[in-house]
Amino acid sequence: MQEKKNILTYEGLRKYEDELHELKVVRRQEVAQKIKEAREQGDLSENAEYDAAKDEQRDIETRIEELEKILKNAEVVVEDEVDLDKINIGCVVKLLDIEYSEELEYKIVGSTEADSLKGKISNESPVGKALIGCKVGDNVEVETAAGTFTYKVLEIQRSR
């Protein structure tokens, strides 16, 4: 079975590459130093610093593995080539929430990069899935766990 592609924007790709570099080059050395210092204290069976450093090392190695897997299966969306006639991954969309007369702005990204607190929604989320392919002026009904919402597409633009 082929592994799922991780759709990323260039911004997302850079973020993951930077994090991977930081973990491999800086954090690994910091933790190795902590482990070395803890070992020099003697008895490891009751050494909390040693245990904490080993836990941190395990967490770092797990994250490195996750990042390498994400990057290995990455498919980068070239945002400059995104068709602005319809909503797709890599674009920023302005919506009007019909019920609350509130304007919303989302960047449509792959699921790996999604972060609703930063306005980045996944193409696989209910809202993202419903918006893909819509054009300016379209009304879109979205069924979510919280109920059905209707949005009007106001604008589609390239991400900044």
Q: How many strands, what sense, and barrel or not for the largest sheet?
A: 5 strands, mixed
Return the structural class: alpha/beta
Question: What gross morphology would you assign?
Answer: elongated
Q: How much strand?
A: 25-35%
Sequence of strands across the biggest β-sheet: 5-4-3-7-6
Low-confidence stretches: none
Q: How many β-strands, per DSSP?
A: 7
What is the radius of gyration computed over CA atoms, rounded to a whole number of angstroms?
22 Å
Q: Tally the helices: what do you get?
A: 3
SSE arrangement, N to C: EHHEEEEHEE
Distance between the termini: 36 Å
Q: Would you tell me the overall average pLDDT?
A: 91
Can you give the helix content as a percent range?
Answer: 25-40%
What does this structure look like?
- 38% of the residues lie in helices and 28% in strands.
- It has three helices and seven strands.
- The chain has a five-stranded mixed sheet. Strands 1-2 form a two-stranded parallel ribbon.
- Strand 6 and strand 7 form a beta hairpin.
- Helix 1 packs antiparallel against helix 2.
- The radius of gyration is 22 Å and the shape is elongated.
- The model has no long low-confidence stretch (mean pLDDT 91).
